Amino acid sequence: MSATQASEEKQPSNALPMVIVAGLFFILGFATWLNGSLMPYLKQILQLSPFEASLILFSFYIAVTFTALPSATVIRKIGYKNGMAMGMATMMVAGLLFIPAAKTQIFALFLFAQLVMGTGITLLQTAVNPYVVRIGPEESAAARISIMGILNKGAGVVAPMVFTALILSGFQGASGELTQVQIDDMANSLVLPYLGMAVFLGLLALAVKKSPLPELESEADSNEDNSDHLKEALSHPNLVLGVVALFFYVAAEVIAGDTIGTFALSLGVENYTMMTSYTMLCMVAGYILGIALIPRIISQQKALMVSAVVGLLLTLGIVFGDNNSFAIANAVLGGVQLPDTLVLIAFLGFANAIVWPAVFPLALSGMGKLTSIGSALLIMGISGGAFGPLFWSLSTTTSMGEQGAYLVLLPCYLFILFYAVKGCKMKSWS
Questions:
Q1: Is residue 338 within 8 Å of residue 330, measured between CB atoms?
Q2: pLDDT 10s digits, 156-211
Q3: CA 153 from chain center: how many Å?
Q4: What is the rounded CA–CA span in Å between residue 400 and residue 218?
Q5: Please, what is the Cα angle at 188 between 47 and 112, to 5 degrees?
Q6: Which of 16, 45, 55, 345 could serve as a FRET partner for 392 with CA atoms 20 to 30 Å apart?
Q7: Domains of the chain in sequence order
Q8: Cβ pair 375, 364 in contact under 8 A
C-alpha cells in the first residue's frame, strides 16, 4: 500500500459528522427561537406585566453566564460527543418541567424550566461549536459555521409555525380578558407538545451517543485544574476580546430581531408581528453570502470588518431615517409598504450574519488544549441577548424615543470593528 493510499484511509469523510452536527444546530435554533412564541403566550395566560414577560427571555439567556465554564469542565471530562448527548438530555428535562409548570400555572416554574433549557443549550453549544471549527480546515471554519447558522435561523422560521399549529390553533378566538376555563385550556395545551419534545430530545441524545461521530483530540490534563485552564485562556487577548465582541454581537442580533415588531407597532404598521421574519430572512441571506465568499474571495477577518461597517451605517440610517418614507421598500420589496427605518432594521440581520461565524474561529485560533474552555467563554457572550433589549427599552424612555434608542447599537458595532481590525490579531496583553 502506498503512502498516499494509507493517508487517504486515515482521513475519514467529514460528511456524516457534519450532517449529524447540522441536525443539532437545527435543534438549537428551534429551542432558542421558540421563545418568541412562548413569551407572548405565557404573558396572556399568566396575565404578566411587560417586565415579568421579559424575564422569560432573560432567564433563558442568563443561564449561559452561569453554566458556560462548568460546561467546559464537563466536556473535558466526558468528551465532545458525550457533551452533546448530555446537553440534549438536559433539554429533555427542561421539556418535562414545562408539564408541572403548565398544570400549576406557577410563573416561577416556567422560569426554572427556561433556566434549565438554557443550561442544556449552553452545554450543547459549548460542545458543538468547536466541533464545527475543528472538524475541518481552520480557514474555512466560517463557511461551515455559516451553514449551521442557516439551519439555526431556518429553525427560527419553523418554530413559530409548529407552536401555532400544535398549541395556538384551537384558541384563535381567545383574546382580551380570558376566563379561568380558557386559561386552563390554554395552559394544558402546552403539556403534550412539550412531552413530545422531551421524548424526541431523549431519543436524539441516545442516537448521538451511539453515533459514529469521531471524538476530538482529548484536552484533559490530570495535572491542571479548571482554574489553571481559565488563567491560561485569559492570557489570550484574541479570545477574551472575542468574548466581548460576541456579547455585543448577540445584543445587536436580539435588538434587531426582537424590537423591530415593537417599533413597527408604534409606527402603526398592521403586520407588525411579521417583522422578525424580515430580519431572519436577511440573516439567512448573509449566511449564504458568507458560504459563497469565505475564504475563497474574502478572509474571515475582512468579512467581519465589512459586517461591522455595514452595521454602523445601517444604525445611523435607522436613527436619522424618515419614518414616512417608503423608498427602500418600494425599490427592494416590490411595493411592500414598510417605512425605510423598518427595512434598515431588518437589514441589520444581513450585517449580523457573518459576525458569529467569523469571531468564533478567530477567537479560538491557536488555543489548542484550551479549545473547550475557550468555547465556553465565547458561549458566555450569548448573555448579551439578555441585556441588549433591556438597554434599548431603557433608552426608549428618554427623549430619544424608540427610533433614537437604536443608538445603543453604535458601541456594539464599533467594538466588533475594533476586534476585526486589531483585537483578533493580539497574541499578548503587553
A1: no
A2: 777 767 777 787 666 655 555 778 888 888 889 899 999 999 999 999 999 888 88
A3: 9
A4: 52
A5: 65
A6: 45
A7: 14-213 (1.20.1250.20), 225-425 (1.20.1250.20)
A8: yes
